[in-house]
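Before a colleague's protein record goes any further, I have to sign it off. Alongside the sequence sits a line of tokens, each denoting a local backbone shape. I want your independent view on whether this chain really folds as the tokens say. Where you disagree with what is written, explain briefly why. This is what I was given:
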Amino acid sequence: MEGMVDLAMQLSGEPVLGNWTIHVILDGKRTTQTFEIDEYVLPKFDVLITPPSYIFALDETVEFSVCGLYTYGQPVRGSIAVNVSLGRTEIPQAFSVEDTGDDGCHTFDFPRRHLGRVNSIQSRYLILDVEFTEIVTGIARTETHGSTKITKIPLTLDTVGRNGFKPGLPYRFQILAKLPNSRPASFVSLTVTALKSKGMGHFSFEETYTTDQDGRVNAEFRAPFDPYITELKLEVTYRHPYSHIPPVRSSKYIDAWYSPSGSFLVIRPLTSVYPVDENLDVEVEFTIPESDADTILEFSYILSVIVLAMTKLFYGMLCKVSWPDFSILAGSERLHLAFEEDPARIELSVQLTLHILQGRIQDFLTRGR
């Protein structure tokens, strides 16, 4: 015999809480099913506000989203009411939506001009007061967000480089440009200048660069070969097309290095990773004074290789160079260093020395594999 029966039992107003058991006897066979009676607790939910990370004074629109989410992870269908204000100093603007739909979220946007004129914005904060009401139960929850900054500063600049320059040789540095939310300021135009700030004589440099997708610029200029210039001011400037936005600048002062022999040496930057069992090309740039025009230049090196915290030193003579007679002697040499080590972990430090007459000049460069 087959079939189905639908039965019901009305519980009292205050039933006994706990496990109940239904007993069914059919054709002499007994079947049981257990269920639980407990107090009903309305599901709890949170209100999530996703504001912009920052608002620039010239942005056309401001966008933010609001979501309702049960504590067990499912979306809450409901209505949303939002009051938007600037630091609670002005009359708030009201926005609302009657039904978020099944996903429990809604994105609001409004013109940035509603926040005031550009000239009146002085590092203020956007205040979002949100009330989210669950449609099924009518229960409402409120949430406030007030840490989104409205700024007239489009980006920040940081200039990274040595604190000194070697006369007559390239000074290399890096520029880092970031948006107010610390993300890279990609493909923006920057002006770089270098001027004499201390000493006698004249020196000036100016060049325009564009940041890459990581907000970086690798730049260089040839420092003056003038013993009377003792300090340079390096400045990076970003100018926004809108004239009301003040320029952004980053400055760095660099001192002239001193050498008893009047000579200077620099190793061009190496790549951070290079293959084992192949020659490492090291390009050296140097200057020597007029008095050493007939000198035979002798390059030597100390190569220290750190393998698993153990240091090994290698010494060698690279080359000798003779120079003709002219007032400022400058040049470069490409040196080949051959070494073989376990490629598991290598940190390479090159100490390069150029011997001239009674003095010597040296430079250090460290790179890791």
About this structure: Residues 45-151 form a domain with the Immunoglobulin-like fold (CATH 2.60.40.1940). The chain has no helices and 25 strands. The radius of gyration is 36 Å.
